[in-house]
Design a protein that fits this description.
Elements (H helix, E strand, L loop, with lengths): L7 E6 L4 H5 L2 H10 L4 E6 L2 H6 L7 E4 L3 H15 L8 E4 L6 H9 L5 E4 L8 E3 L7 H11 L3 H10 L12 H13 L8 E5 L8 E2 L2 H15 L2 E5 L5 H8 L7 E2 L6 H9 L3 E5 L2 H8 L4 E4 L6 H4 L7 E4 L11 E2 L5 H14 L10
Parallel strand pairs: 1-2, 1-4, 2-3, 4-5, 5-6, 7-9, 7-11, 8-14, 9-10, 11-12, 12-13
């Protein structure tokens, strides 16, 4: 059966990074747009279970053990699940899921045809290798061309350019939790709200100086009556408290108090973000939150960042070949961050939200 004849697709979603999980979501919408009559399901573990939860274009979301830690358990769960009954289907490996253990779990789970990124090309009917000249999202969409629908994909993207944007689907319950958390923190929902993401993962250490974040916070408070909400993990809470405590006005923190979909709902209730290039930034993009991104000099922006997105301003003023240890992004100034925030707040006035539809 030629690959172009398949209409059932199973996404294998077991990445180890939040951004990778979020950047796989455009493929789901693009499959439906480019291949009429397609049916999409997914296996998931870790971050991807949250990110894919509630997605209306997934027929099934199948929790299985991560193949990276238990490939035998994953293959057994997949064989039992039978995602499309007796109908033929193709398993798709997006970037971040190209590991041999993911393919092995699929193969021993009864998936005979696999397409996408692979470190072992012999395990794929149409293996792909990463093209560093395009984004992670664009790389994932190449899977559709590998299935034989490249022209249909091009037409779909021409008619729906927003297909390249990641999406998440927080439920009403997530929004209720986010709103209650903001109110508990003393946030007035009628006043402008800014999210600050000031910490990054220890595996890709990069930072902006605390006094610079505080200077921008003071400008937002002074000029826009903005309330500042700090987001992060429980492990980042103490660093966030140290950063915010010298500010001369009250701020809020939700560090460690939300799961991923609650945080995405909370971001959807706010007006703008100032963020480092890190996992929660991708959640902000997925809920269409305007944001100023302070980006590291050593990371190519085409890979991860929302280029040519009117809601995003990327501040990256140097190029280093590698990541220096304990890197501080001193080449991005307070004045740049402030002016770009002002510009976005003019384009997207606080407490309106209509432009996010």
């Amino acid at each position: 059966m030629p690959l172009s004849a398949y209409r059932n697709f199973l996404l294998l979603q077991h990445p180890s990074a939040l951004g990778t999980a979020i950047h796989a979501t455009p493929l789901i919408r693009a499959l439906h747009a480019a291949i009429p009559g397609s049916h999409v399901a997914a296996t998931a573990s870790g971050f991807s279970l949250d990110i894919l939860s509630g997605n209306p274009q997934l027929e099934r979301l199948i929790p299985i053990p991560s193949p990276l830690s238990d490939w035998r358990g994953a293959s057994k769960a997949l064989r039992t699940a039978r995602p499309f009954g007796d109908e033929a289907f193709v398993a798709l490996q997006t970037q971040g899921n190209e590991r041999t253990l993911v393919a092995a779990a699929a193969m021993f789970g009864g998936v005979h045809t696999r397409v996408g990124f692979s470190v072992e090309p012999r395990l794929s009917a149409a293996p792909l290798q990463i093209d560093p000249s395009v984004s992670l999202i664009a790389n994932n969409l190449r899977i559709i061309a590998a299935l034989g629908h490249g022209e249909a994909l091009d037409n779909a993207l021409a008619n729906q350019p927003d297909l390249i944007e990641p999406v998440v689907f927080p439920s009403e319950r997530h929004f209720h939790k986010a709103e209650a958390l903001l109110l508990e923190q003393g946030i007035d929902l009628s006043r402008p709200i800014t999210v600050f993401v000031t910490q990054t993962s220890v595996t890709q250490r990069k930072s902006w100086r605390p006094e610079r974040f505080r200077a921008v916070a003071e400008m937002l408070y002074r000029e826009y009556d903005a309330q500042i909400v700090f987001a992060g993990t429980s492990g980042e809470a103490s660093a966030i408290d140290a950063l915010r405590s010298p500010l001369p006005f009250a701020t809020a923190t939700v560090a460690g108090k939300t799961n991923l979909l609650e945080l995405s709902a909370l971001m959807a209730l706010t007006d703008i973000a100032l963020t480092l290039d890190t996992g929660p930034m991708h959640l902000a993009r997925a809920v269409r939150l305007p944001m100023v991104i302070i980006a590291p000099a050593w990371s190519p922006p085409v890979e991860w960042l929302p280029l040519n997105n009117p809601r995003a301003r990327i501040l990256k003023n140097a190029d280093f070949p590698t990541a220096p240890p304990d890197y501080i992004i001193d080449e991005v100034s307070v004045e740049e961050a402030e002016q770009n925030l002002r510009d976005l707040l003019t384009l997207y006035p606080p407490r309106t939200f209509t432009w996010r539809a």
